[in-house]
């Protein structure tokens, strides 16, 4: 029998925790939250949100499922497993905006039905393909007449402020957000926004004024026992949420070209070779039949789509270029693909961090793919980021037991572009060494050159 493991990211809420029992996901509802949960369930609001696709389904199971681990729960819920957990600092602009709009839409519908969200953390949203889903049932509780929005500042820090800096100033917030898991404060955002941007009514209300209030409270803190009380009519509450929703829905990703954003239209191989590459990937996928496949350097998603067509159930794409990720997201959304394109700095992937260095798991700790493709990728890491070829292959082959890795030689135009900016110190970057290193780590199932002297594809399998 599988051991029960507590999810290290769920400790902050005393009303319940999440547990892993093999492939099962269980959530406790402690007595302090029992009444709120039963009110939600009995009101049919829970069913409405689940049927809408906004809230993860839940089934009540026997409390003895967690006997001896979490005794005393009022309820134990079982949820379907999200195949891959991602974090807001790995999202593109469009993913972050979609998650923000989901929270706001859910909150507005909840208020209509007499409920509210107790917090506004972005970590309560996950993605099935490009579609966001809310995963924390315990954040929903009955609304109390006149109450203020307790999650207002959190929503601004984790949604509004990063989106504003991204859209209005072209500042990609991923590294900043990863460095501060709570998000980007209104105080920092207000300092960065020029006066002309701050005059917008939404930004004035939710960034500038909030920053001023926070600075005032730091300068003149409220004494213990003397808490200010504020009453907010429900109509004003809904108006605030709708103002934010309309503003965020109108934000657009920053335009402009990026280094590799047009890669799919400016490759170093012919369209025939691109077809050959897709067929090679499809052959591997059809043989391995992965539930989850990683596409490293996914660009706009050509080979992610090929993998799905060949039988992969779900593709998680990774790319450093936000322009490419926006194209990939639009494609996944329009074609209803089970394809989630995420931001990744492969030479500095997301680490395990947060409380106990386990609250948010690193990429390696979340790696659950049965296969990967790494096309137009390895030269960016070895030559672009000075990572040894053997270390790069250790990392890649460690992410999935089977896959396809592409090797462009130093004569490849894209490699030449990288080398034109620096001295060639990469003596181990040869096709012969590439094949030798893979053979030491896995069985080479098949290999193919794309045209005479073109890029080399290797299908490996270490199972």
Could you please describe the fold and organization of this structure?
The chain has helices spanning 31-42, 45-51, 93-112, 152-169, 174-179, 186-192, 195-198, 201-219, 234-250, 271-288, 302-309, 322-334, 363-366, 378-382, 389-399, 413-419, 431-441; strands spanning 4-6, 18-21, 24-29, 59-61, 75-79, 115-117, 125-128, 131-134, 140-142, 292-296, 314-319, 339-343, 371-374, 402-407, 443-449, 456-461. It is of the alpha/beta class and 463 residues long. The strands form four sheets. The chain has a seven-stranded mixed sheet with strand order 12-11-10-13-14-16-15, with helices on both faces. α12 links the parallel β11 (314-319) and β12 (339-343). α3 (93-112) packs antiparallel against α4 (152-169) and α15 (389-399) packs across α17. The longest helix has 20 residues, at 93-112. The two termini are 24 Å apart.
Secondary-structure topology with pairs:
Elements: E1 4-6, E2 18-21, E3 24-29, H1 31-42, H2 45-51, E4 59-61, E5 75-79, H3 93-112, E6 115-117, E7 125-128, E8 131-134, E9 140-142, H4 152-169, H5 174-179, H6 186-192, H7 195-198, H8 201-219, H9 234-250, H10 271-288, E10 292-296, H11 302-309, E11 314-319, H12 322-334, E12 339-343, H13 363-366, E13 371-374, H14 378-382, H15 389-399, E14 402-407, H16 413-419, H17 431-441, E15 443-449, E16 456-461
Parallel strand pairs: 10-11, 10-13, 11-12, 13-14
Antiparallel strand pairs: 1-2, 2-3, 3-5, 4-5, 6-9, 7-8, 14-16, 15-16
Helix pairs in contact: 3-4, 3-9, 6-8, 10-11, 15-17
């Amino acid at each position: 029998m599988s051991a029960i493991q507590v999810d290290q990211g769920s400790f902050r809420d005393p009303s319940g925790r999440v547990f892993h029992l093999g492939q099962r996901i269980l959530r406790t509802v402690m007595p302090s939250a029992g009444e709120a949960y039963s009110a939600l369930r009995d009101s049919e609001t829970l069913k409405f949100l689940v049927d809408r696709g906004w809230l993860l389904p839940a089934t009540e199971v026997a409390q003895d499922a967690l006997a001896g681990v979490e005794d005393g729960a009022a309820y134990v819920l079982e949820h379907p497993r999200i195949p891959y957990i991602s974090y807001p600092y790995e999202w593109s602009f469009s993913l972050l905006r979609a998650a923000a709009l989901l929270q706001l839409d859910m909150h507005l519908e909840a208020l209509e039905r007499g409920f509210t969200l107790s917090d506004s953390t972005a970590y309560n949203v996950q993605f099935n393909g490009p579609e966001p889903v809310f995963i924390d049932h315990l954040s929903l509780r009955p609304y109390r007449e006149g109450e203020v929005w307790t999650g207002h500042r959190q929503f601004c820090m984790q949604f509004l402020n990063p989106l504003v800096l991204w859209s209005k100033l072209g500042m990609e917030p991923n590294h900043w957000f990863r460095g501060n898991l709570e998000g980007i404060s209104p105080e920092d955002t207000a300092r960065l926004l020029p006066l002309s941007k701050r005059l917008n009514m939404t930004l004035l209300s939710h960034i500038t004024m909030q920053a001023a209030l926070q600075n005032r409270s730091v300068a003149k803190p409220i004494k213990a026992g003397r808490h200010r009380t504020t009453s907010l009519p429900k109509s004003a509450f809904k108006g605030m949420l709708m103002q934010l929703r309309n503003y965020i829905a109108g934000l657009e990703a920053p335009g402009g070209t990026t280094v590799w954003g047009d890669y799919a239209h400016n490759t170093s191989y012919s369209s025939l070779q691109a077809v050959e590459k897709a067929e090679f990937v499809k052959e591997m996928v059809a043989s391995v039949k992965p539930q989850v496949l990683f596409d490293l350097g996914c660009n706009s998603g050509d080979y992610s789509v090929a993998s799905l067509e060949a039988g992969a159930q779900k593709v998680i794409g990774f790319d450093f270029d936000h322009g490419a990720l926006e194209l990939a997201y639009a494609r996944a959304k329009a074609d209803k693909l089970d394809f989630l394109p995420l931001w990744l700095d492969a030479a500095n992937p997301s680490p395990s961090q947060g409380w106990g260095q386990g609250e948010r798991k690193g990429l390696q700790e979340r790696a659950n793919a049965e296969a990967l493709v790494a096309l137009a990728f390895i030269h960016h890491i070895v030559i672009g980021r000075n990572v040894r070829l053997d270390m790069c292959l250790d990392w890649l082959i460690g992410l999935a037991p089977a896959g396809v890795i592409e090797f462009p030689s130093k004569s490849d135009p894209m490699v030449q572009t990288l080398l034109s900016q620096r001295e060639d110190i990469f003596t181990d970057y040869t096709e012969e060494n590439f094949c030798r290193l893979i053979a030491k780590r896995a069985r080479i199932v098949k290999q193919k050159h794309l045209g005479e002297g073109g890029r080399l594809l290797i299908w490996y399998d270490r199972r």
